[in-house]
Amino acid sequence: MSISRVSFSTNNGTGVTLGTHAKGDLILYSAYFAGLGAPSLPPDVLGLYTRSNSGGSHRLGYYIAESDSETTGTSGWTGASNVTAIAYRGGPRSVVIPTILSQNGSSSTVISYAAQAAITSPVFKESALDLWLVGLAATRATGNNLSGLAPSGMTFVNNSIGVGFEVASYDTNSTRSAIWPATNVTQATSVVWATFVLELLEIDHKTTSGGGGGSYSPIDNILIG
């Protein structure tokens, strides 16, 4: 495998200090608000998904680091109760690009990570060098121990407990080739929860196009399917 998790950090507030990273690393951001209204997206951070719900709201985004001392996206998540950042790195001459596979939310003891409907061949997928999955979860309670509730097939990365909420992140920590199925975990207390499954694709920096020839740089021209 070529993708690796470089660092992670989390903070209960509207910003976060990034862990170790280098130029070209993917910085994956998850901002959570324990109520109705998604946090703001900081300038230059590319939006992935927005979910607004009275039981908890999310704004997901990413940035390709331009240095080893990045500050883009470390602040400006106005309205957030928590901001989490995870840095991922590909192999030489490659970039890691994220896309959303599924999202889910309800109020129950069973936390469900929705199934990937099919392999939909998003942009660059046919040229991917490696593929990981990332899981994100949030609950409106503090006693359900999300750190111990990684969905089957993923490992725990980090979590944070705030006033009346807990957020956590997980990833496969290895290549995944099968379609992600619906996956459930059970928490002790029935509360509002939300989950996301994301796909990370490692793409060669210069990807040859299939039809007209030439090359395409996903670092310089980021496009997500």
Query: Could you give the count of β-strands?
Result: 12
What number is the mean pLDDT? Answer: 88
**In which order are the strands of the major sheet placed?**
1-5-2-4-3
- Based on helices, strands and strand pairing, what is the structural class? mainly beta
Structural commentary:
- By secondary structure, this protein is mainly beta.
- It has one domain.
- Helix content is 0%, strand content 49%.
- It has no helices and twelve strands.
- Strands 1-5-2-4-3 form a five-stranded antiparallel β-sheet, with no helix packed on it. A five-stranded antiparallel β-sheet has the order 6-10-7-9-8, with no helix packed on it. The protein has a two-stranded antiparallel ribbon with strand order 11-12.
- The protein starts with a strand and ends in a 9-residue tail after the last strand.
List keywords for this structure.
225 residues, mainly beta, five-stranded antiparallel β-sheet, globular
Give a short summary of the structure:
With 225 residues, the chain is an all-beta fold. Helices cover 0% and strands 49% of the residues.
In terms of topology, how is this protein built?
Layout: E1 4-11, E2 26-33, E3 46-51, E4 57-64, E5 82-89, E6 94-113, E7 128-139, E8 155-162, E9 165-171, E10 183-204, E11 207-208, E12 215-216
Antiparallel strand pairs: 1-5, 2-4, 2-5, 3-4, 6-10, 7-9, 7-10, 8-9, 11-12
